[in-house]
Amino acid sequence: MKKFLDLGMQPLANKYLTRNDLKNKKKEKLYHLEVGFDKKTKLVSILNKVSSEKMFDNKYPYRSSMSKTMTKSFKILANKITKVYNPKIILEIGSNDGSLIKNFKKKKVICVEPCKNLAIITKNKGFKTYADYWNINLAKKVKSKHGKVDLIYSANTLSHISDLNSVFKSIAHVLSDDGILIIEDPSLLECLKKVAYDQFYNEHIYVFSLLSIKNILQKFNLEVFDTEILKTHGGSIRYFIKRTKNFNIKVNISVKKQLKNELRFRMDKFSTYITFKKKVEKSKIKLVNLFHKIKKDKKKIIGYGSTAKSVTVLNYCKIKSESLDYFVDTTPDKTKKYMPGTHIYVDQYKQDLLDGVDYIFLGAWNFKEEIFKKEKKYIKNGGKFITHIPTPQII
Ligand code: TYD
User: Domain with 103 in it: what CATH number?
Assistant: First the structure.
């Protein structure tokens, strides 16, 4: 791994602090967030990895059901899975609060979710749930209990697991011979194009490309046979994967196209990542200047969507509560708490909280359309938004 980007010292992106934590001056552990590129495997990853146990515990606040965009995307996929593949069993790795699997019959579903506070949600709804980390031990357990699985799905999870060999070995262990694996994660191509450096935080160990995924899969005799480009999470790729020896499924032209696009962007070259790093440094200066200018005019700025992404941006740009009053968010376990690192207060979303606000920093820029639709009144009243994607600006 060759380093190309230094995002400074960063806290764990989903470790919110309580008022008591602040009062007791609880020491927050910071980690040096650096990003590197592996010339051989084309994999982009953060360099100092934090153990899963530290990040995904029984208090993990992130809930995938918090946005309509995500629930809609899961519903469309569930319909496609039923229509095209009609699997007997679906195993979801990283089922969170069950926003995908709720679209299937209970007896068809196996959930894997190591965050116990989330696993209990699907368990209580009657879905078979393993509150465990995905590894070979769990894969063996699943196989001996349920037999081989014909469809495995995992969204925004595999990029959070350090040992990719273990991940795919475990998948290959339970997947039936004609089984399908569907994974989706943020796209590195989109991340580079949008200068979305906030895709990097401690939980996002990897930002995948088709180039890198192809290389890993090869080791386990798996291959991508189709890709879909998604708008979710700021631009994601959904990879449809089969066993290489399953000749019943043809490789779709979309795979060739995506690969071509990635190579056209020179994603196999280290110099591309150096160009990206320079763009990130410029983006920081521009955002900091934008905040300074607005604050000089004594205007009020708040944040919308207290995302892990905004934790990276705010800590990297050293934007704190002097310039950003508070965040609003709908996630119960994030609100009435303080953001990691910057200690900006997160309030439970209410439309009133936008009254008298001049500028809203779009923490959840990936849900811009959904948010703009919801906040028509704020926009009509002359309220403005700040985004750093693709370059810091007022919109
Ligand atoms: P997401 O972009 O998925 O986050 P991350 O960078 O952590 O992966 O999270 C979106 C956040 O924005 C989540 O905390 C919920 C919040 N949110 C709102 O508060 N209101 C909204 O209307 C939407 C769409 C999201």
Answer: 3.40.50.150
Q: Considering the entire predicted model, what is its pTM? A: 0.96
| Pair type for strands 149-155 and 175-186 | parallel
Residue 331 Cβ inside 6 Å of ligand 1? The answer reads yes
| Inter-CA distances, 303 with 61, 151, 200, 323, Å | 18, 39, 19, 10
74: in domain: yes
Q: Centre a 10 Å sphere on the Cβ of residue 247 and count the other Cβ atoms it contains.
A: 8
* C-alpha of residue 42 to centroid of ligand 1, in Å: 29
Omega before 340 cis (within 30°)?
Answer: no
The string of pLDDT tens digits covering residues 252-273 is 999 999 999 999 999 999 999 9
Kind of pairing between the strands at 128-130 and 109-112 = parallel
Ligand 1 in reach of 307 Cβ (< 6 A): yes
Q: Is 389 in the pocket of ligand 1 (CB under 6 A)?
A: no
Tell me the CA–centroid distance for residue 60 and ligand 1, in Å.
14
In a domain, 198, yes or no: yes
Domain annotation covers residue 6 = no
Radius of gyration of the chain measured on its C-alpha atoms = 21
Q: How many domains in the chain? A: 1
Predicted pLDDT of residue 26: 87
Sheet holding 326-329, edge to edge: 337-338, 345-348, 326-329, 301-304, 359-362, 384-387, 393-394
